[in-house]
Amino acid sequence: MASSILFFGFLALSFIHVPASDPGSLQDFCVADETSNVIVNGLACKDPKRVHADDFSFSGLHLAGNTSNAVGFSVTTVTVAQIPGLNTLGISLVRIDYAPWGINPPHTHPRGSEILTVIEGSLEVGFVTSGPENRLITKVLQKGDVFVFPIGLIHFQRNVWNSNAVAIAALSSQNPGVVTIANAMFGSTPEIPGDILVKAFQLDKNVVNYLQSKF
C-alpha cells in the first residue's frame, strides 16, 4: 500500500511539471537559427558563439500601426520571427492599434494565454467560455487597466472612444498563433463546403455565399 501511495505521489508531481504551453529551455538561451533546415517543435538553435545582442532586441513598438482597414485595427507582433532570442522562452508581445470604434475581431490563440494592458483610450473586451455554457465575460477597460484572455478561448476588443486607442499584450508562447473566426470559417483555402456552413450557422445559402465572397 505504501509503495502504491508513493508511486501515485510521484506521478502527481510529474504532472505538475508538465509545461502548459511552450517547452522549457535546457540552456541559457536557444536563439533561433533561421538558416537551419532542421524541423523541430520550435526552431533549431544557433551556435551560441554566433549570438549577438540584436538576436534579443526589436525596435518599432513606438510606431502606430495602420488601422485603415475594414475593421479598424492593426497588430505589430514581436514573436520569435522578430526576436530570434525568444526561441524556447515561451513569451511574445504585440502592440495593438485601434481606430475610433475599431475592433480586434473575435479570434483565438491556440498556443498561448494573453494579458493585455490599455496604454491609451478605452476598450470593451471580452471572451467566451467553452461550451455548453458559452458564457460571455466582458468589461470596459480604461487607460492602465489590465485584462487576461485564457488560452484557446474566443476573445475580442473594441475601441469605445472617438479617438485612437493603443494596447500592449503579452502572450505565453514564442509563437501563440491566431485564428480569426470569420476568416477561418468563411475565408479558408480551399473553402469549407457551403452546405456545412449553412447548417452550422443556420444561414441561408445566399448569405453564406456572400460571406465567403467577402473573405
TrEMBL record:
InterPro entries membership: Cupin_1, Germin, Germin_Mn-BS, RmlC-like_jellyroll, RmlC_Cupin_sf
Disulphide connectivity of cysteines: 30-45
PROSITE patterns, per database record: GERMIN
Signal sequence, renumbered to the chain: 1-20
Gene Ontology CC: apoplast
Domain Cupin type-1: 59-209
Localization per record: Secreted, Extracellular space, Apoplast
Protein residues bound to Mn(2+): 107, 109, 114, 155
Residues reported to bind oxalate: 104, 109, 114
PANTHER family hit by this protein: GERMIN-LIKE PROTEIN SUBFAMILY 3 MEMBER 3
Family to which the UniProt record says this protein belongs: Belongs to the germin family.
Role this protein plays: May play a role in plant defense. Probably has no oxalate oxidase activity even if the active site is conserved.
Protein's recorded name: Germin-like protein
Natural source organism: Salix dunnii
